[in-house]
Specification:
CATH topology: Rossmann fold
CATH superfamily: SGNH hydrolase
Strand order of the largest sheet: 2-1-3-5-7
Oligomer: single chain
Number of domains: 1
Mean pLDDT: 93
Number of strands: 9
CATH architecture: 3-Layer(aba) Sandwich
Protein name: SGNH/GDSL hydrolase family protein
Helix content: 40-55%
CATH class: Alpha Beta
Organism: Flavobacterium ammoniigenes
Low-confidence stretches: none
Order of helices and strands: HHEHHEHEHHHHHHEHEEHEEEH
Radius of gyration: 21 Å
């Protein structure tokens, strides 16, 4: 029995040591990568100066054509991330401020993402390699139910989110395999020929008194950033369009552009403009907020 206990203790210690070594190895590799995605890019960035930056979900990433702003002499970058929520947008903005980004205006896509205060598992996982090195990231995740496991159990975060920060992504980061996330100043155009779902039902959605939207507003106020919060277009076949009226009733400062582009030929899916539609929408924003026809 004593011999078995010793063997069990040895196995447990060996597993713990292996987890510590693997955690250190993965973290070291991720911390040396800065070109795989927007989170890594910001985390490793030197101070930047922008006339305007974009934040939000895919409805920011696919809708704001950053190169059109640059053509008008407006220095910009689209930091929208597909599938992200306001949890990630707020944290990314905090990192920008910590890295001394000077931002004159922030255009924040604020519509469907107001209906939840959860994090997106896939996008938020990309912050986790820096969890022990960044107090901002640690504090932001501290309210999450799984924080204790993420922070204190070696290698747990890499196992729990293997699809995003597991061996495959670690290997690609180590080999510096390029992605297209930073192309086109962060804007990701969608095609128009092969459409996704052109129906949407948002009748059950309800805008919350969203803590992360509040955080973003507070950060902008403290750092003298003009916040332009707005709702972006939807296709014609949507049930529950009164959701956008509810958003504006709750948050009158949010500009409603959900009907700014009409015609399903301008959509790649019900909630996402194609490149032609995005260019139409971006020109409207340039005219309305920047006086650039």
């Amino acid at each position: 029995m004593k011999q078995f206990s010793r063997l069990l203790a040895f196995i447990l210690i060996a597993i713990l040591l292996l987890a510590v070594v693997l955690d250190w190895g993965y973290t070291t590799i991720f911390q040396q990568s800065s070109t795989r995605g927007k989170i890594e890019y910001v985390y490793h960035a030197s101070p930047q100066q922008y006339d305007v930056v974009f934040l939000g979900s895919s409805r920011a990433n696919n809708h704001f054509v950053a190169p059109l702003f640059e053509e008008k002499g407006i220095k910009t970058f689209n930091y929208g991330m597909s599938a992200s929520h306001l949890f990630e947008a707020s944290l990314l903005l905090k990192l920008m401020i910590e890295r001394k980004f000077v931002i004159k205006k922030l255009i924040l896509e604020t519509d469907m993402n107001l209906a939840n205060e959860t994090r997106d598992a896939g996008i938020s996982a990309q912050f986790l390699p820096y969890l022990h090195d960044s107090k901002i990231i640690k504090d932001h995740f501290a309210v999450e139910q799984d924080f204790w496991k993420l922070y204190y159990i070696p290698f747990y975060r890499y196992l729990a989110f293997d699809a995003k920060i597991g061996f495959r992504e670690m290997n690609r980061s180590w080999r510096q395999v390029p992605t297209n996330y930073l192309d086109n100043l962060g804007y990701h155009p969608l095609g128009g020929k092969k459409k996704g779902n052109m129906k949407n039902d948002i009748r059950k959605m309800k805008p919350l008194n969203n803590r992360y939207y509040k955080e973003i507003k507070a950060i902008c106020k403290a750092n003298h950033i003009e916040l332009i919060a707005l709702m972006t277009p939807m296709c014609s076949n949507v049930k529950g369009m009164d959701y956008f009226d509810k958003v504006q009733s709750k948050y009158p400062e949010i500009h409603n552009y959900e009907k700014a582009v009409e015609g399903d030929q301008y959509f790649s899916s019900c909630g996402h403009l194609n490149d032609e539609g995005a260019r139409m929408f971006t020109k409207i924003i340039l005219k309305d907020f920047f006086g650039k026809p």
